[in-house]
Specification:
The chain has 218 residues and is mainly alpha-helical. It is 78% helix and 0% strand. It has a single domain, classed as MetI-like fold.
């Protein structure tokens, strides 16, 4: 392989690195708290909240992320009455789809972590005079996060790779520029180069979460 050609490809693909990293960061920053909120709804004592959140998780986990991307970019404008107000550019549409999709997965992870907390700790919190909110924030959430870090890490790694799906709606991410180079040069080398970019990103994410797991270890 010509090193100068690989360098040229790397520079071209790096033009989409900011978009890929931006989508990853925005999705993670928004879907984690949203997933936590939905997980609280999933274990709520109110049946309506459980039903709504359960339907949300079922819908978002039960349909392909690619289909959701198409819906939020191509489908929203065709909704009756309100479609004309829901026209989104490519990147915002991708962000909405990713945030809602990953929030559903994080909600189930957090729900599992919440259910792993011993019931006696809730009773002890009531004896100490903690409100339901204080019990969740001061006792449940810190312990639940320790339990949930490994599966959250797995989802974050999956998210790095899933960002490539946005190429399907024309978002100019790393894969977009790699595919453009392949079509232009009739040479698949760009796919190998972009694969290295994704591997480096997943390596960094893995290291960050392993560090967090060590810091949060009992």
């Amino acid at each position: 392989m010509d090193p100068s050609y690989i360098l040229t490809l790397s520079k071209a693909i790096s033009d989409g690195l900011g978009v890929t990293c931006g989508l990853f960061a925005i999705t993670l920053a928004a879907s984690l708290p949203l997933g936590l909120l939905i997980s609280f709804m999933r274990v709520s004592r109110f049946s309506a909240l459980r039903a709504i959140s359960g339907f949300y998780v079922w819908l978002l986990r039960g349909t392909p992320l690619m289909l959701q991307l198409f819906f939020f970019y191509f489908g929203l404008p065709f909704l009756p009455f309100i479609g004309q107000y829901l026209i989104l550019d490519r990147f915002p549409a991708a962000c909405v789809a990713f945030i809602l999709n990953y929030a559903a997965y994080f909600a189930e992870i957090f729900r599992g972590g919440t259910l792993s907390i011993d019931k006696g700790q809730y009773e002890a919190a009531r004896v100490l005079g903690y409100s339901n909110f204080e019990t969740k924030m001061k006792i449940v959430v810190p312990q639940m996060l320790r339990v949930c870090l490994p599966p959250v890490s797995n989802e974050a790694i999956t998210l790095v790779k899933d960002t490539a799906l946005v190429t399907a709606i024309g978002v100019m991410d790393m894969l977009y520029f790699a595919q453009k180079a392949v079509n232009r040069d009739v040479n698949p080398t760009a796919f190998l180069v972009v694969a290295v970019f994704y591997l480096v990103m997943t390596f960094i994410v893995t290291k960050v979460f392993r560090y967090l797991e060590k810091k949060c270890a009992f």
